[in-house]
Amino acid sequence: MSGYQLAQINIGRLKAPIDSPEIADFVANLDRINALAESAKGFVWRLQDEAGNATAIESPFGDGMIVNMSVWADVPSLADFVYRTAHAEILKRRREWFERMDEAYTVLWWVPGGHRPTLDEAALRLASLREHGPDAYAFTFQKPAPAPDATVAAPVREDDACPAT
């Protein structure tokens, strides 16, 4: 068993204000998807505010950006949640609610067990991924890095992970 856990952040700019009718279906699914994450195998922690989500947390990524940050036991646990649960259906609809981003908006990295990453830490990891590409410091599902105390990490391809629709 690894002494490390997997941190992730994904960011996005909503197409309209969080309280607008255009975003209502996204907001209506937040509690359900957050509860699904919390009950998923390998879930450890997620960033949240007093309301139970992170949409009101000030983002270091710029005005209008919202964040989702969490910690998981390992890459397969996070991949299972992202691509093999009801979260996958919400993920497929992201273009309805979020502007298209031309640069990386998701990054994964290893943290010592029990560590809770900060938004500033996540911003450094995302900046590194954008500047240098995936490596042991900041990586993606497609090019995961092994935990510092492990030897192998297999890639997760979205095509293989998503159930056929």
Give a written overview of the molecule:
This protein has 165 residues and is of the alpha+beta class. The protein has a single domain, classed as Alpha-Beta Plaits, CATH 3.30.70. It has 6 helices and 4 strands; from the N terminus they run βαββαααβαα. Strands 2-3-1-4 form a 4-stranded antiparallel sheet, sandwiched between helices. The longest helix has 16 residues, at 24-39. The radius of gyration is 15 Å and the shape is globular.
Annotation keywords:
165 residues; Alpha-Beta Plaits; 18% strand; single chain; 4 strands; four-stranded antiparallel β-sheet; 6 helices; alpha+beta
Q: In one word, what is the shape?
A: globular
- What top-tier CATH class fits best? Alpha Beta
End-to-end CA span: 35 Å
- Report the strand count: 4
Please tell me the overall pLDDT.
Answer: 91
Strand adjacency order, main sheet = 2-3-1-4
CATH topology: Alpha-Beta Plaits
User: Which spans have pLDDT < 50 for at least 5 consecutive residues?
Assistant: none
Q: How many structural units, i.e. domains?
A: 1
- Spatial extent as radius of gyration: 15 Å
CATH architecture annotation name: 2-Layer Sandwich
Structure at a glance:
By secondary structure, the chain is of the alpha+beta class.
